[in-house]
């Protein structure tokens, strides 16, 4: 039978651990990039909400009825 020796098994485990560590590092980089993008988009949405509220306020100030067009 061909039982792997203990050093071979340890080497295989170390290789697997190194691959897992690399994968975790790559996933962490992706996660950080996504959080930065989420933060950017959150700030953008907040600014757009502010602009929309300002536009609605300006539109609501002129509650006087609009004069009829000149051809009436």
UniProtKB/TrEMBL annotation:
Q: Which residues form a coiled coil?
A: none
| Alphabetized InterPro entries for the sequence | SlyX
Q: Where is this region: Disordered?
A: 53-72
**By its UniProt entry, which HAMAP family does this protein fall under?**
SlyX
Give the family, as the similarity comment puts it: Belongs to the SlyX family.
Protein name, entry field? Protein SlyX homolog
Per the UniProt record, the source organism is Kaistia geumhonensis
State the organism's lineage: Bacteria, Pseudomonadati, Pseudomonadota, Alphaproteobacteria, Hyphomicrobiales
Q: Which gene encodes it?
A: slyX
């Amino acid at each position: 039978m061909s039982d792997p020796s203990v050093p071979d098994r340890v080497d295989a485990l170390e290789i697997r651990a190194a691959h897992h560590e690399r994968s975790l590092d790559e996933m962490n980089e992706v996660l950080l990039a996504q959080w930065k993008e989420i933060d950017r988009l959150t700030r953008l949405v907040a600014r757009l909400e502010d602009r929309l509220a300002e536009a609605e306020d300006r539109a609501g100030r002129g509650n006087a009825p609009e004069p009829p067009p000149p051809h009436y």
